[in-house]
Amino acid sequence: MPELRHDPFQKRWVIISTERALRPADYEAPKVEIKGRLCPFCEGSEDKTPPEIMAFRDGTPRDKPGWKVRVVPNKFPALKIEGDLDRRGVGVYDSMNGVGAHEVIIETPIHDLEFADMPVDQIRLVLAACRERLNDLLKDRRFKYILIFKNYGSAAGASLSHPHTQMIATPVTPRTVAVELQSGKDHYHVKERCLFCDMIQEELAAGDRIVRANEHYVAMAPYASRFPFEIFLAPRPHRHSFGEITDEEIHHLAVMMKDLLRRIKVALKNPPYNFLFHTIPNIHAGPKRATYWETIEFDFHWHLEIMPRLTHVAGFEWGTGFYINPTSPEEAARYLREVELPPL
Amino acid sequence: MPELRHDPFQKRWVIISTERALRPADYEAPKVEIKGRLCPFCEGSEDKTPPEIMAFRDGTPRDKPGWKVRVVPNKFPALKIEGDLDRRGVGVYDSMNGVGAHEVIIETPIHDLEFADMPVDQIRLVLAACRERLNDLLKDRRFKYILIFKNYGSAAGASLSHPHTQMIATPVTPRTVAVELQSGKDHYHVKERCLFCDMIQEELAAGDRIVRANEHYVAMAPYASRFPFEIFLAPRPHRHSFGEITDEEIHHLAVMMKDLLRRIKVALKNPPYNFLFHTIPNIHAGPKRATYWETIEFDFHWHLEIMPRLTHVAGFEWGTGFYINPTSPEEAARYLREVELPPL
Fold it and tell me: Region B81-98: what's the mean pLDDT?
């Protein structure tokens, strides 16, 4: 019998469709490759990107070779950094200028060194660059939210294959985050506990959806997974803001992310994937600062979502906003837990 | 400057990103083809599907050749027709049995006769079969909603190429519909007018997003289009329920749908697409009937959404629930309006 499961964060139902039960080998992962062309992210092509915003370098000059991680503005930004929002009504509609930021974190100078294969120290640098850019963008009161995300493989939306992560700062709190925040607020209001912490406790006790867990982080297949082999990763102690992550926490996160992405790569034959961080909205953003701030620390728990792209989102999902998942999260977690990884 | 636009139905922001402005020729439409194999929907293969639920036939026997449109249960249904919902809590989560219906409307006995190329009379039969099945499923009080949708091409989620439309009946009102219904209710509560009717009036007056309009139907590129060349089609007079569509209205709808799908096929080189109908939820569904019924007639206006699948939904969209659209709806409408169609 298929089962409907409810996601308490997104307040969303998902169909776990056992009739269509699929195992890893049943998914034909779309080819990850992207057509070769002159890569603007490679070392030596620094003049092919807009001037860098920051980089980790050993004393080498800006926009020249000799960097480990490099952050540049997106050459074709979805949102633009200059200008005011100019909020306005247009008949029954509403409009504002597309003010925001769109940056690219070039994860490595090496063209074909995938995230899953990078040394932990390199992943630490990528995460440290994300933290630094996030905290800088949070100072801009026009930006309500900053999303850190990665598209890996063309079927996941990547247009360049050189390893990179992106950040987009938006002038509105995105609906997805607003819903999670409201769920957290509602729960805290009644129970004075974090909804995410409660869920993590329950998942650790049950165990069957846990992929990996240690004293620092927990990775699980969500109870109401939308997609097969989706992973939710969160710090085990309560942490509301990714911007406040410590160097030590970054180290443990890098170890965990590498492990999970290797599991996905081996179990699902290097599929395209997306990952994205959800952290609290910008508490400094105007004009609604005060309303957020009072209880926000326990209203939200930052987390990372990893979504292998194995199924098509089709008419039913667009028309309803709920999802048909042909692999149960319990089975997905078991496969990912048990997959044999080659030695490092 | 990119622009943020707000959709008053879905209460969703969209980024119209002029920096990335793309014209029809810039989109590389993913191949529509699906691997050939023995087709269970072809005439003569009636024993390859579950027994038919209904068909338009000229006196030929059930589950035999000699039909024009044939409706069968999906062989691998996302939801199952038998059983009770058995709603239950599971720790912090909620679960219920996956009770529902999942039917396939086989649009024609001819394997390669695409919707856009069918005679109007054939499209009328398809729409009449949708109406008949919708009204039958609405009698089941377990079903809160019935979605009629089509996936065309494998990138749009189709797994068989023989022309078919699908229906899924769900035991919860899908979030997407619930949000539209609430928007309509809020508007009607204040203004005692239908939000959709107001929008249609305004669009007809402005004109620049209209693709086609006559006294029966209006087709437009939505102000806050999520996807390039997305179309919103609605009856021009106020109509809340697709189940109550008359034969004459079906005729005019068939003419309009054929015209629009031909425009998409020619302008965008036969891209994969999804279409889906949004109609009112099942007012007979238990146990909340009374709450809906009072004002629902003016809270909702049925409509069809057509979405060519030209862009990838990637990390940003998953992480935020808002969309980056590289073609403005004004430009999309103009292209579709002006495309030269070959003679019929």
Answer: 86
Residue A89 CB partners (closer than 8 Å, separation 6+) = A95
Provide the CATH number for the domain formed by B3-82+95-338 in this structure: 3.30.428.10
Using an 8 Å CB-CB cutoff, list chain B residues near A147: 315-316, 319-320
Under 8 Å between Cβ of B267 and B24: yes
pLDDT at A77 (0 to 100): 86
- CATH superfamily entry for domain A3-338: HIT-like (3.30.428.10)
- Closest partner CB to A319 (pick from B6, B276, B315): B276
The residues in B 32-71 lying below 8 A from A, measured between CB atoms, are none
**B275 contact A CB<8A:** yes
Closest CA to A165 of A72, A44, A302, A303: A72
Of A76, A149, A168, the CB nearest to B19: A76
Contact B15 A171 (CB under 8 A): no
Q: Is the pLDDT of residue A22 over 70?
A: no
Which residue has better confidence, B140 or A22? B140
Q: Is B216 a catalytic residue?
A: no
- Return the top range by mean pLDDT from A7-11, A156-160, B306-310: B306-310
pLDDT band, very low/low/confident/very high, at A290 (cuts 50, 70, 90): very low
Chain B residues close to A20, C-beta within 8 Å: 76, 78
pLDDT in tens, A31-63: 566 665 689 999 999 999 999 999 999 899 999
Residue identified by tokens 């294959």 is A161
- Say if residues B312 and A157 touch (Cβ distance below 8 Å): yes
The mean predicted confidence, pLDDT, of chain B is: 89
Closest partner CB to B79 (pick from A2, A90, A174): A2
CB B175 within 8 A of CB A11: yes
Percent of chain B with pLDDT over 70: 92
Chain A: residue whose CA lies nearest to B222: A93
ipTM, 2 decimals?
Answer: 0.86
**Residues 92..131 of A with a Cβ closer than 8 Å to B: which?**
92-98
C-alpha neighbours within 13 Å on the C-beta side of residue A151: 24
Report the 10 Å Cβ neighbour count for B51.
10
Distance from CA of B155 to the nearest CA of A (A): 7
Q: Please tell me if residue B318 touches chain A, with a CB cutoff of 8 Å.
A: yes
**pTM here?**
0.91
Q: Mean per-residue pLDDT for A68-80?
A: 92
For chain B, domain boundaries = 3-82+95-338
Contacts of A91 in chain B (CB under 8 A): 202, 206
Question: Is A125's pLDDT higher than 80?
Answer: yes
Q: Which tens digits make up the pLDDT trace of A198-217?
A: 999 999 999 999 999 999 99
- A contacts of B172 (beta carbons < 8 Å): 4, 13, 322
Quote the CA–CA distance of A115 and A113 in Å, as a whole number: 7
Instruction: Tell me how far apart the alpha carbons of residues A52 and A65 are, in angstroms, rounded to a whole number.
Output: 12
pLDDT value of position B1: 73
φ and ψ of A281, to 5 deg = -60, 165
Tokens 């082999």 correspond to A229
Per the CB < 8 Å rule, is A4 touching B174? Answer: no
Nearest CA among B211, B205, B209 for reference residue B223: B209
- Which residues of chain A are within 8 Å of residue B93 when distances are taken between CB atoms? 5-6, 8, 223-224
